[in-house]
Fold these 2 entries.
Entry 1:
Amino acid sequence: MKNKSLISITDFTPEEYYKILDLAEEFEKNPKQNLLNDYVIASLFFEPSTRTRLSFDSAINRLGGRIVGFSEATNSSVAKGESFADTIKTVTQYSDLIIMRHPLEGSARYASEVADVPVINAGDGANQHPTQCLLDLYSIRKTQGTLENLNIFLVGDLKHGRTVHSLLMALSNFNPVFNFISPETLKMPDEYKDFLNHKGIKFYEHTEFTDIISKADIMYVTRVQKERFSDPMEYERVKNVYVLTNDMLDGTKENLKILHPLPRVNEIDTSVDENPRAYYFPQALNGVYTRMAILSLILGIKS
Ligand code: CP
């Protein structure tokens, strides 16, 4: 993984996923390690973020590294008309690795082509969010004891949700059965269903949130992504289509864990937070350990 960019979850192999998860486990046991002394990491966020940006910051700080960057494009010379390529080429001079979030699909891949240092995609439009995917895999393995043969429910905005796109691709290596629950207009895009068909992975699509969830090992709930809608009226029509409440979890499996990449809007009632099946806040913490592992492997400090 040394010096490799991480743009799509398919850039790494299942063996490499396991290497990251195993190292993340070590960091969880012993998070204070000064491995990134003398390293400078650029953190370029052209789109808002709480968890991804701050958990990367936390991971870098815990490892003794330093961070340069910006949390909104208006604070950079992009606001003066500088091209994206020139920005990336310049930041390459100042850093050993670039972490980047951008609203345009494909922007992270383009950045990796013009940068002389590895690039980590922290989310590009509705396309991919590979580091979220790795922390999701970590959370799934930690709570289920395995990644293999699980019944995975993906719920909400499956059209625009980059986290579900990355997770679907990664889990397809571990013989899952998928159930998709979404409104008709926010269904999983055909390209991802074609991907599953090609790999012989079973999936079922639903528009109603019914007691079908009693089969789930993992229920991965997502927000309806307001910022990706061109028609605000369409967002209003679907924004509260599903709200998970405690009573809906009666009869679900003991081992069920509810994951959510966060931020949450209304799709999980806050009363669910106290339910032992709720795992979305520990999941966010897992992002720190997973990102410590990703940084150490890409920078070649661990192998
Ligand atoms: N999960 C996630 O990407 O959250 P942020 O948008 O807050 O980074």
Note: The longest strand covers residues 40-45.
Entry 2:
Amino acid sequence: MSRTVFVNGEYVAEEQAHISVFDRGFLFADAVYEVTAVLNRKLVDFTQHMERLDRSLSELAMAQPVSTDELRAIHHELIARNDVDEGLIYLQISRGAADRDFAFPDEDTEPTLVLFTQVRAVADTPAARTGIRVITVPDKRWGRRDIKTVQLLYPSLAKMEAKRAGADDAWMVDEQGITEGTSNNAYIVLADGRIITRQLSHDILPGITRRSVLRCVNDMQLTLEERAFSLDEARSATEAFFTSATGFVMPVVEIDGHTIGHGKPGPITNRLREIYIQDARDNAE
Ligand code: PDD
């Protein structure tokens, strides 16, 4: 059945939706995005996603076409029109359409605003029960990974390399160690229970799920270290996991063919997933 999507102020059937071939999102990846999970027809961590959207826009001197309240209403309307009980909503804003030129257009262009839904299980998935396998690849992305832009070609290539290697995802590595996954933040748990994840900087995306999960870590009185960790340290970990809007807290049971812990989702990871999802359900709007 055809979905209803939102394009520049209108709700239209996906077959009827179109944007300009001159759109700078299409030509230059001059666009930012957010992905928000839907649980029980409600939005998870919505306000925080919209705060990050505002920051991404302002870092790129891009206009915000509608207010957060309007965006909330559009999200809810799409949930209703597409009967989304569980899944995600994708939102993208580009600088708009203009003659192709590396410089931003002189006159203010109308930003392009697109939203669509994807129905899928997010809370109870086979991957969360068994854990996933990752490979590592060099982090070859640009230097402002803290801005959520649609320049996703390198992460997409890394994901394909993982699939070719029989794994599920790739974690990227720079001179200091593991930065993050292709579309998630990376964590390890050491034998003494310490949880390690890369500190925030221009090198990684400040994950919204990361922020909420770190609050759970604090509530559970677990020890957290926000710092770089090497591949060797990751291989010696007893548990590993990633966080993202659609994966929540996802166990990682193998890194580069090396089994982590007992090759099954670990107890700390499982507990964090459970608590985060409960929290997400309780606070969804
Ligand atoms: N990706 N790091 C990167 C590079 C990401 O693309 C994402 C999210 C995250 C996790 O952020 P959050 O917890 O706010 O989802 C970290 C989304 C889900 C995607 O591209 O589909």
Note: The two ends are 26 Å apart (CA to CA).
